Amino acid sequence: VAFVVCRSLEGLKTFSYLEELILDNNLLGNDLLLPKLPHLHTLTLNKNQISFQRNTCKILLDHLAEVVPSLQYLSLLGNIACPNELVCKEKDEDDYQRYRYFVLHKLTNLKFLDTRKVTRREREEALVRGAFMKVVKPK
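The chain above was modelled as a monomer; its predicted structure follows.
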């Protein structure tokens, strides 16, 4: 397990066998770039600055799918990208479920997202509609 407080993740490339990475409470955003970590199965990015601005979250999720192919547990709690009614009064459970479908559509191997186990029904729904579930607020 690695505990890192930083803005640059360049040094992680020397830990190619890393299995768990906790990057909570940093200033990491959608431009996060991880090196190839083929054994990483757990990644927590709680309380950072990840959002659904434009297509940047899609790009981040595509990047994670490529560089951490073994990822099974991801947590994005406390980020703008993760709609949570406890953090934002305008968000509700439907917003959170759409977010889950979108993330699961991109990261198909996840077994847990945030604090919840991924269900078979969610996985099926993510395959069918996940690409269209990005939570966007009209301006």
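Helices lie at 56-67, 93-106, 120-129.
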